[in-house]
Amino acid sequence: MVNDHHTYEKLIEITSKQNVMVNEPLKNHTYTHLGGKADFFVTPETYVQVQQIVKLANRMNIAFTLLGNGSNLIVKDGGIRGIIMNLKKLNTIKADDTVMIAQSGARIIDASREALAKKLTGLEFACGIPGSVGGALYMNAGAYGGEIKDVLTSTVVVDRNGDLLTLSANELDLKYRSSNIPDNGYIVLEATFSLKDGNYDEIKAVMDDLTFKRESKQPLEYPSCGSVFKRPPGYFAGKLIQDSNLQGKQIGGAQVSTKHAGFIVNKDDASAEEYIGLIHFVQKTVKEKFDVQLEREVRIIGDDPEK
Q: Family assignment (predicted)?
């Protein structure tokens, strides 16, 4: 633990006691319900506070990690050192005419619902994606034929120095499930989407259809990180895993879903070590059987526990 009462006091000065937690279990903040403790878990409420926290971490040489809403993430059992920042309190969504501005801590699902309420089309594909707006930009999230780069026009970010930048979508190098946001160390604060006027009933019908497909095919009854692997060229990850007879395969409390082979679920109080071990086992088995290397879509961060 980076202990330091001094760090704690500085963080409280920037934000408030309500927004700084010490030794906070990260399993409380991830969809997989996995992860050890964060030294300092901070939830800023303004863009200026985000900038000040980044500058503090730089000045004091403290490790700094941005945690989204934890939907596409595995945190290891040893937790994360230093300052962990979560932007869930930056969550406003506003639509004016066909332009929507959504803060990064808002859920992308809620952005799609707001678009429906305003009779705007373009974000239907996101109605079942569990991540935050910031996370959606980070990985150019997509589903059912749509992706963030189809509708994003610009974003406001904080860079590694704590400076505020406005970038066009083209400057993010958005590709299949990737962007240059992690490489540049950007912290997304808000996204501007360009949508189109549409018909409420038609938009809702598409969203209802996509929601039905998701709920009927995905194992939403257990904690998971969503789709674990990227789609390999020419294949479907779930089909390869299924054809490797891995559905139901379990390591500790982690299981390859019997409902959708592309998902690994936390069926019975799994540890991150068990969950990650099962990911590696699936990759190894599919490689041996089909000579296809499955690439992870989910991020793994944090420390291994001390043995």
A: Belongs to the MurB family.
Q: For residues 47 and 165, give the distance between their C-alpha atoms in angstroms, rounded to a whole number.
A: 11
Catalytic residue among 24, 124, 190, 297: 297
Listed in order, the ranges of the chain carrying CATH 3.30.465.10 are 93-202
Residue 158 has pLDDT above 60, yes or no: yes
Percent of all residues in the chain with a pLDDT value above 90, rounded to a whole number = 88
Cα distances (angstroms) measured from residue 269 to each of 157, 219, 225: 36, 16, 14
Say yes or no: domain 219-301 is CATH 3.90.78.10. yes
Q: How far apart are CA 286 and CA 67, in angstroms?
A: 30
Nearest to 157 by CA among 175, 169, 149, 141: 169
* Stretch(es) of the chain classified as CATH 3.90.78.10: 219-301
Entry pTM: 0.91
Which fold is adopted by the domain 5-86? 3.30.43
CATH number of 93-202: 3.30.465.10
In the 8-state DSSP scheme, what is residue 46? S
In this predicted structure, the answer to whether residue 36 has a pLDDT above a threshold of 80 is: yes
Model confidence band, residue 214 (pLDDT cutoffs 50, 70, 90)? confident
Q: Please confirm, yes or no, whether 179 is among the known catalytic residues.
A: no
Question: What value does the mean pLDDT of the chain take?
Answer: 95
Q: Is 81 a catalytic residue?
A: no
Question: In which order are the strands placed within the sheet that holds 99-103?
Answer: 93-96, 99-103, 187-194, 152-158, 164-168
Q: How far apart are the first and last CA of the chain?
A: 16
Active site residue 271: no
Inform me whether the pLDDT recorded for 1 exceeds 70.
no
Q: How far is CA 78 from CA 70, 273, 279, 281, in A?
A: 16, 10, 18, 21
Where along the chain do the CATH 3.30.43.10 domains lie? 5-86
Among residues 224, 227, 244, 271, the one annotated as catalytic is 227
pLDDT band at 226, cuts 50/70/90? confident
